[in-house]
Amino acid sequence: MQLQQLVLGYQQPLTNPINWRVAAGERWALIGPNGSGKSLLLKTLSGQLSPLGGNLVWSSGVRWVYLAQEHPRPSLWPLSGRDWLGAMGVQPATLPLIEHLVDRRLDQLSGGQWQLLRLASVLGSQAEVILLDEPSNHLDVQVRSQSLALLARLQPHQSLVMAGHDQDFIQASGALEYRMELLQHAS
């Protein structure tokens, strides 16, 4: 994926043009203070927002998947972790680190367990590009180590772009840092 003079914003530009390239197999972490454009960039990469200028170029045939920062649990139906993974097109058997969650109801999982299941559904998708917005939110020590173990299972051809504030989590994931605080707000 390549960003060429990409300008982010809603109705007005919030960033100067961004030039950046993510090659197959690279791991990147978007770091910077709140309001620096990390989530905005991920929403733009995932197609939720259109850039205000420039080009976003994906290699032909690349599949991507996006884990939003917050996602409420479905509470209308008594869905299990297995149901959730099935809806996401992921086979639980490929993710032994979460086997303890697959037969539990989603509404009975802790916030960290729900985040782990969501992360597993994204990482188990086999997409070539994984976009994660604050994947370490709501994680206790055990769930955090399980999340890092899932990230360690990324295939060499899979690229990772994640936003985060947790420097220890970012370093443990092996991601390179793309410093969003270096972006100047457009005037």
TrEMBL record:
<dbReference type="InterPro" id="IPR017871">
    <property type="entry name" value="ABC_transporter-like_CS"/>
</dbReference>
<dbReference type="InterPro" id="IPR050153">
    <property type="entry name" value="Metal_Ion_Import_ABC"/>
</dbReference>
<dbReference type="InterPro" id="IPR003439">
    <property type="entry name" value="ABC_transporter-like_ATP-bd"/>
</dbReference>
<protein>
    <submittedName>
        <fullName>ABC transporter related protein</fullName>
    </submittedName>
</protein>
<dbReference type="GO" id="GO:0016887">
    <property type="term" value="F:ATP hydrolysis activity"/>
</dbReference>
<keyword id="KW-0547">Nucleotide-binding</keyword>
<keyword id="KW-0813">Transport</keyword>
<dbReference type="Pfam" id="PF00005">
    <property type="entry name" value="ABC_tran"/>
</dbReference>
<dbReference type="InterPro" id="IPR027417">
    <property type="entry name" value="P-loop_NTPase"/>
</dbReference>
<dbReference type="GO" id="GO:0005524">
    <property type="term" value="F:ATP binding"/>
</dbReference>
<dbReference type="InterPro" id="IPR003593">
    <property type="entry name" value="AAA+_ATPase"/>
</dbReference>
<feature type="domain" description="ABC transporter">
    <location>
        <begin position="1"/>
        <end position="182"/>
    </location>
</feature>
<keyword id="KW-0067">ATP-binding</keyword>
